[in-house]
Amino acid sequence: MPELQCSHDPAVIEHRLLDLVTTTDSAITAPAVACYTPCSLEDADRVLERLVAEQRLRVELDDHGHVTYVAPDRAHMTPPRTQAALAVVMPVPLELVPAPNPAIAAILSLLVPGTGQLYAGRPVSAVVWFLAVAFGYLLLIVPGLVLHILCIASAASAAHRVQHAPF
User: Fold this and answer.
1) What phi and psi values does residue 71 have, to the nearest 5 degrees?
2) Cβ-proximal residues to 116 (8 Å cutoff; 6+ apart), any chain
3) Topology of 10-70 in CATH?
4) How large is the angle between the packed helices 102-111 and 141-163, nearest 10 degrees?
């Protein structure tokens, strides 16, 4: 959205004020007009007072002495009551996914290296472990077994960290 330039022109301020009146239910006050327009507070006051003098706006004073301006023919904005609008107001509760079980993650990695990491929600780690263990088994059986055991421990550890995360 382009930034509005500060205006001192009463016609521009009035035009933006009418936009505020017709598109929102915001209270019409000098600070609101100065912020929305944008213009100085003094310029906003002058335009509002002129519109009151022309009887296009009415001044109201609340119990606390706050001045608001009322447009006599202002239509109040009412949002549509469609199912889509209600869905935004009242979101559907999300189903929580249960945290991964470290024992299941270890068993999965025992069967196929990396699947425990995948189960724990770490796909990159799963691919790396699968490739490392496969490479270890290709070299010799002992490096493959060592890497496979480390893979199982890593999967259980990853599932344990997810299970005990602070959120």
Assistant:
1) -90, 120
2) 104, 105, 106, 107, 108, 109, 110, 126, 151, 152, 154, 155, 156, 158, 159
3) Arc Repressor Mutant, subunit A (1.10.10)
4) 160
Residue predicted with more confidence, 160 or 106: 106
Burial of 165 (C-beta count, 10 Å sphere; 0-12/13-18/19+): exposed
Predicted confidence at residue 1, as pLDDT, reads: 47
Amino acid at 39: C
Rounded to two decimals, the pTM is: 0.43
Other Cβ atoms within 10 Å of 40 Cβ, number: 15
Is the separation of the CB atoms in 70 and 17 below 8 Å?
A: no
More confident residue, 86 or 134: 134
On whether the CB atoms of residues 130 and 114 are closer than 8 A, the answer is: yes
User: Domain residue spans in the chain?
Assistant: 10-70, 102-163
Give the residue-averaged pLDDT of 18-28. 78
In the three-class reduction of DSSP (H, G, I as helix; E, B as strand; rest coil), residue 105 is classed as: helix
Instruction: Spell out the residues 6+ positions from residue 127 whose beta carbon is closer than 8 angstroms to its own.
Output: 114
For residue 70, the 8-state DSSP code is: E
